[in-house]
């Protein structure tokens, strides 16, 4: 779905993280900026680059990756509309601690370090926005680590599928938002383990055809995902 410029502005202004922020400060966040468009596979920034911008996701999907010295990569998160990237940008002389790459065609609003510093100088309360952003992302990471430690591969896949159902109860039909290999990486498993997990879920009434998933009983799948 494409969004017009005025829709983008309204969306940013109504994001929960910006609640209570004075309209003139929000105007500075948007002031004379056009969203940046990134085609699939385009790198927004590399780990170790100077952190010049905070990005607000307006449309599309971006993956965040942490690289290791041996060249291996860990997928940290997959972000979409309403998410933010690189909250570290407001810290002077900081560098990006991860890389970001567009998975689908993505539009993002880049907010420069100088703009962020100016907003904080004009209203120290704006720093609360930055703290909210960091708190939100920290909570997501804690939840991710908890699942890795306490849930089986099949349970992690079940939880991921349940998050896609958008309030459906009883039976549900969902569409996987990304390629299965990318979902597997996000959930901390290889593609073979992901396939075995899906096979396990078939025993619970989950039917899989490509990226289309049908849940025979949401309650049954929830009980399995939450079990100790």
TrEMBL record:
Transmembrane parts of this sequence: none
UniProt keyword annotation of Protein transport present: no
PROSITE patterns (UniProt xref): CNMP_BINDING_3, HTH_CRP_2
Annotated HTH crp-type domain residues: 151-219
SMART domains with a match to the protein in the record: cNMP, HTH_CRP
Alphabetized InterPro entries for the sequence: cNMP-bd_dom, cNMP-bd_dom_sf, Env_Response_Regulators, HTH_CRP, RmlC-like_jellyroll, WH-like_DNA-bd_sf, WH_DNA-bd_sf
Domain Cyclic nucleotide-binding, chain residue ranges per copy: 17-111
Keyword Metal-binding appears in the UniProt entry: no
Pfam family name, one: HTH_Crp_2
Example GO molecular function: DNA-binding transcription factor activity
Entry GO CC: cytosol
Protein keywords: DNA-binding, Transcription, Transcription regulation
Protein name according to UniProt: Crp/Fnr family transcriptional regulator
Originating organism: Prosthecodimorpha hirschii
Source species taxonomy: Bacteria, Pseudomonadati, Pseudomonadota, Alphaproteobacteria, Hyphomicrobiales
């Amino acid at each position: 779905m494409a969004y017009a410029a005025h829709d983008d502005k309204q969306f940013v202004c109504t994001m929960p993280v910006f609640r209570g922020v004075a309209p003139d400060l929000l105007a500075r966040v948007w002031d004379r900026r056009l969203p940046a468009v990134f085609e699939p596979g385009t790198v927004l920034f590399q780990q170790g680059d100077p952190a010049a911008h905070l990005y607000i996701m307006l449309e599309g999907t971006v993956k965040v990756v942490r690289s290791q010295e041996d060249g291996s990569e860990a997928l940290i998160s997959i972000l979409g509309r309403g998410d933010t990237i690189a909250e570290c940008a407001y810290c002077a002389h900081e560098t990006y601690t991860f890389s970001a790459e567009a998975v689908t065609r993505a539009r993002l609003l880049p907010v420069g370090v100088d703009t962020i510093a100016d907003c904080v100088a004009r209203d120290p309360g704006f720093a609360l926005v930055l703290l909210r952003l960091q708190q939100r992302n920290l909570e997501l990471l804690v939840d991710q680590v908890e699942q890795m430690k306490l849930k089986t591969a099949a349970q992690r896949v079940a939880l991921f599928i349940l998050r896609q159902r958008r309030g459906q109860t009883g039976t549900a039909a969902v569409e996987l938002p990304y390629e299965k290999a990318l979902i597997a990486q996000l959930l901390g498993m290889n593609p073979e383990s992901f396939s075995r997990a899906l096979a396990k879920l078939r025993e619970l009434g989950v039917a899989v055809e490509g990226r289309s998933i049908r849940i025979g009983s949401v309650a049954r799948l929830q009980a399995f995902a939450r079990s100790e």
